[in-house]
Amino acid sequence: MDIRREVIAILDEILSLGGRGLAFADDTPLLGAMPEVDSMAVVAILTALEERFGFAIDDDEIDGAAFATVGALHRFVLGKVAG
Fold first, then answer.
1. Domain segments of the chain as ranges
2. Contact (CB, 8 A) for 20 and 33
3. Sequence-separated contacts (24+) of 50-53 with Cβ below 8 Å
4. In CATH, 3-82 is 3.40.1160.10
5. The overall pTM is greater than 0.85
6. Alpha-carbon distance 30 to 37, whole Å?
7. What pLDDT digit, counting tens, does each position of 7-63 carry?
8. Residue 72 above 80 pLDDT?
């Protein structure tokens, strides 16, 4: 399983990017840079990540840094999958 690809696919779907997300790089900014990434989108992304990868995210585990870039979100998911 390619976790990075799965994270990007979730972003593309939740944010209704129509495939534009497939061009995201690790340094692609998210929170504060993309109008699609609002509080409701963050909740939907977190829920989709939990369902797709089978982990739970506690409220105190999430802060803006996890959504700073695609790479930051990918590293967050890697940490949850490994833990």
1. 3-82
2. no
3. 52/6, 52/10, 53/3, 53/6, 53/77, 53/80, 53/81
4. no
5. yes
6. 7
7. 999 999 999 999 999 999 999 999 999 999 999 999 999 999 999 999 999 989 998
8. yes
